[in-house]
Amino acid sequence: MGDNAISYGSMLVLSLLLLLPPLAKGCDMFTGQWMKDPSYPLYDPSTCPFIRREFACKKNGRPDLDYPTFRWQPQGCKLAWFNGVDFLQKNRGKKMMFPKSMAVFDMYAPLFCSQVSLYYDHIRHYLNLHIPVEIKFDRNPYLVDIVSEKIGSVMKLDSINDGKNWLGMDTLIFNTWHWWSRKSWDYIQIGRNFTKDMDRMAAFEIALGTWGKWVDTVSIFQGISPSHYNGSLWGEPAAHSCAGQTEPLWGTSYPGGLPPEVGVLKRALGKITKPVTLLDITMLSLLRKDGHPSIYGIGGRTGNDCSHWCLSGVPDTWNEILYNYML
Ligand SMILES: *[C@@H]1O[C@H](CO)[C@@H](O)[C@H](O)[C@H]1NC(C)=O
Ligand SMILES: *[C@@H]1O[C@H](CO)[C@@H](O)[C@H](O)[C@H]1NC(C)=O
């Protein structure tokens, strides 16, 4: 405890320095660059009970340890450090839900580890005793329904019955896409038509349209999390995955540009009249070719995971942005 109090004290001083100038209203949090910052990571992943083994890269033997020490620096402002207690207090009495794929659930779990352990005890205390915020997670990788029928599992692009689970929430934080690149259905249904498969971008856009008609709560859409399997896209044509990457790209833009699904998502969100905010984390994540587990995930060398992220790491920045958005 004593040590924590000291490190908390110095963190406070540091954060006062770092917070100048404060987050400007209207600052574009999504354009900027990564910088090395010795005060990161903001928590020790070995003390965070919510981190699943496949994302605990350090524990899994990842030898290079720079990857959690980069801070996202937007061009026009500085992000406030994530403060779990404050996050809960700001949302006191509210209900929040994260309907999204399991993988992203795991990325949000350490939301409550983004503090020194002194804070962690506070958060546990809050969650156990007061529960001022109801936080729910709902596994729904595609947003639209997947239903088990006689012919097999059917993804219904124009149906969103699962949305009933989201009613009554004050804030919904959505995410999708991660699972769209893998086929985990037998049929796709649109109206009365069934097909075994179709252009995934087209399917994704129809599903987003269905979702757009459904959504009426204040919603936040967590943008698309990119993967790194093609070195040509970051100027290293010999690289066929993220394995061995130890540094971010230092510039502000990704040579390969944004993946096409981002365009589809933005187009779909542009058609929605309801208040949906996109937390556009794709570009900042694209710059982090070093941030994935690669062979330090669960499958070891055979796994070579360049689509999920090490924790601590890049998703902490997504959480930081979510927090700053709510400030
Ligand atoms: C269903 O298939 C028919 C025939 O191929 C086509 O004319 C129709 O537009 C399709 N409907 C939908 C909703 O895709
Ligand atoms: C990698 O990206 C380059 C540049 O866009 C493209 O030409 C190539 O087909 C891609 N390779 C793979 C395996 O997708």
What is the CA–CA distance across the termini? Answer: 28 Å
Bound molecules: 2-acetamido-2-deoxy-beta-D-glucopyranose
Q: Uncertain spans, ≥5 residues at pLDDT below 50?
A: 1-22, 101-105, 115-120, 128-132
Rg: 20 Å
What is the helix tally? 9
Strand content: 15-25%
Estimate the mean pLDDT confidence: 78
**Structural class designation:** alpha/beta
Work out the helicity level: 25-40%
Give the SSE order as H and E letters.
HEEHEHHEEEEEEHEHEHHH
The coarse overall form would be: globular
Biggest beta sheet summary:
5 strands, parallel
* Main β-sheet, spatial strand arrangement: 4-3-7-10-11
Number-wise, the strands total 11
Structure commentary:
Its main location: membrane. It is found in: Membrane. Belongs to the PC-esterase family. TBL subfamily. It is a single-pass membrane protein. Pfam families: PC-Esterase, PMR5N. With 327 residues, the chain is α/β, with parallel strands linked by helices. It is 28% helix and 16% strand. It has nine helices and eleven strands. The strands form three sheets. The protein has a five-stranded parallel sheet. The chain has a four-stranded mixed sheet with strand order 5-6-8-9, with no helix packed on it. The protein has a two-stranded antiparallel sheet with strand order 1-2. Strand 8 and strand 9 form a beta hairpin. The chain is globular, with a radius of gyration of 20 Å. The model is unreliable at 1-22, 101-105, 115-120 and 128-132 (pLDDT under 50). The protein binds 2-acetamido-2-deoxy-beta-D-glucopyranose (2 copies). The site of one 2-acetamido-2-deoxy-beta-D-glucopyranose has 4 residues, from loops.
